[in-house]
Amino acid sequence: MGGNSHSPCASCKLLRRRCAKDCIFAPYFPSHDPQKFAIVHKVFGASNVSKIIQELPVQQRTDAVSSLVYEAYARVKDPVYGCVGAISYLQNQVSELQMQLAVAQAEILYIQMQHHDDDEPVTQIPEMGMVLDHNFPSSSNVIHHDSLSRESVFGYDVVS
């Protein structure tokens, strides 16, 4: 860059243009990390990214660029669902682990009840939010309430 010691940002390098001192991309896409802008440019386009950044207050721009980079990587990995696919996968894991935890808690309670010589069966366990069938320990007899139900993510059903 002629007598200028200012190194072009990753955006200007990729787009092969002169990087002005007030370049909108320079603070968020440094020259030492060209892949970061390349992936965002591939998915969203430089013009769209520029518009997004310019429309936001300065204090929100760094977070917005981080989100764009994350979504761009997710879109390259999963072009159809992007971040929603990752969110669905993680919510499915959380749901499965919650069900495993509930079953383990119910089994612990069942074992504790066997050690007490109570003739009266317990039917409601309010702190666990579930009802036990008296023929337990079959985990299929545990009825889970809303806190353990599967939810949809952005209109997509979470499927195991």
From TrEMBL:
A Pfam family that the UniProt record links to this protein: LOB
Domain spans labelled LOB: 7-108
Signal sequence segment: none
Assigned protein family: Belongs to the LOB domain-containing protein family.
Protein name in UniProt: LOB domain-containing protein 12
